[in-house]
Prior knowledge:
Blueprint: E1 3-6, E2 9-12, E3 17-23, E4 36-37, E5 40-41, H1 43-55, E6 60-64, H2 77-94, E7 98-102, H3 106-114, E8 119-122, H4 131-138, E9 142-145, H5 163-180, E10 188-191, H6 200-208, H7 210-214, E11 221-222, H8 229-234, H9 242-254, E12 259-262, H10 265-280
Helix pairs in contact: 2-3, 3-4, 9-10
Amino acid sequence: MTELECGTRSLNLSRPHVMGIVNATPDSFSDGGRFHRDGALSLDAVLAQVESMVSSGATMIDIGGESTRPGAKSVSAEEELDRVVPLVEVINQRFNVVISVDTSSPQVMLESAAVGAGFINDVRALQREGAVEAAASTRLPVCLMHMQGSPKTMQSQPEYRCVVDEVKAFLSARITVLNAAGITSDKILLDPGFGFGKTVQHNLQLLKQLSELESIGLPILVGVSRKSMFEAVLGRGVDERLAGSLSAALIAVQNGAKIIRVHDVAETVDVLKLWQAVTLAN
């Protein structure tokens, strides 16, 4: 797959792309509440952040209305709709960028697609009731992520016989389900789910062996930005993880990742530009 059709926009996957994270939530682990003013989501703050990310080189913006940090509480579909859909509509009108919705809710998928979303990014791999059918009806690309357990329980002693093999088997099984529902493989991307039901060692193994997932034959999306694994390995708090995030992003791309989901767009774009320049040098 080279050209990924995302609604009215497209991405050329012959080069890696940077997806900027915008969490319209009060409780996400890194930037929760960043765009809230006096307890309410500030549209101006969100648009300023999107403008900064797009001008820095992000080709995708990922809008999330439900925190999936360890121990996070679920939100109602209505609350998630109120947080996500208006942002998608305004961003689509103002910026030439692929808009991704980070959601597991069929209703959010449908209503976001109706106002300009071009990509569905689901940490639950379309396992909620009605999610496969909703995604299929949008005809948008979908990213399937692996997660052991749920956000409330996923970091409670996760265990695997072989994390790479089990993640690969899960994602392969989900591809079969989607294909049967009419979602063709050229519309599917895969995310190993760093930090979602994995220990630090599991995360490191997945990063090292990411090319094993690439062997499935579908593009890989990776989200390692500011993850807690950097505290364990580097001893860094959440606001001191830029170097770790950039290192992991580069390793992921070297091992085949096509989309990197990040908080720090400008820095990640610079790293990947230099990597590309070196790779293409005669």
